[in-house]
Design brief:
Elements lengths: L1 H15 L3 E15 L2 E16 L5 E11 L2 E2 L8 E15 L3 E14 L5 E14 L4 E12 L9 E12 L2
Antiparallel strand pairs: 1-2, 1-9, 2-3, 2-4, 3-5, 5-6, 6-7, 7-8, 8-9
């Protein structure tokens, strides 16, 4: 058993020797949907990504981000937020050298504008990112944020649809 684990670990380490790592920064716009409230928000984010494997088709990133308060698109202001910030892990797979499909797993904290109450929730999301050049990329994603990471995950729900532009440092 130990021998198999050592062999598997050695193969994984060998595959990561051919890895490309790079920091990135980005900004975007999104729609926040919370119960009966809809709002437009801006987001900024930065992270560090790693592409590895024989064809650089496995992807993993760590990302921190901040969201502005939302501009109302509906009349119900009770769930409007002043700001939000958080961190996520983004595992993914690269198709055809330029298209990345990724999952978002993380945590985000918001502040409600009406009650000034803080809210922290776990995040799950799905995204698609496309390289426009060696340094620029564009992404679109859906993110579900729910209160309580394990228990009560669906108690207070936020749905986000975001589009962003990314600059990758090389």
């Amino acid at each position: 058993m130990v021998k198999k684990l050592l062999i598997a670990g050695a193969l994984f380490a060998a595959s990561t020797l051919n890895a490309l790592a790079a920091p990135y920064l980005g900004a975007g716009l999104g729609i926040q949907n919370t119960e009966s409230y809809n709002g437009l928000l801006a987001t900024v984010f930065g992270g560090y990504s790693l592409s590895f494997g024989e064809y650089q088709n496995y992807y993993f990133a760590g990302e921190i981000f901040g969201d502005t308060g939302s501009l109302p698109l509906s009349q119900n202001y009770y769930r409007r937020t002043n700001f939000g910030f958080g961190a996520s892990l983004l595992p993914g797979y690269v198709f055809r050298e330029a298209v990345l499909v990724y999952l978002r797993i993380g945590v985000e904290t918001f502040r409600y504008s009406k009650t000034l109450q803080m809210f922290t929730g776990g995040q799950l999301g799905l995204g698609l990112q496309m390289d426009l050049s060696n340094t620029w990329a564009m992404r679109g994603e859906y993110i579900y944020t729910g209160q309580g990471i394990i228990q009560n995950f669906g108690y207070s729900r936020f749905n986000f649809f975001k589009l962003g532009l990314i600059y990758k440092f090389q």
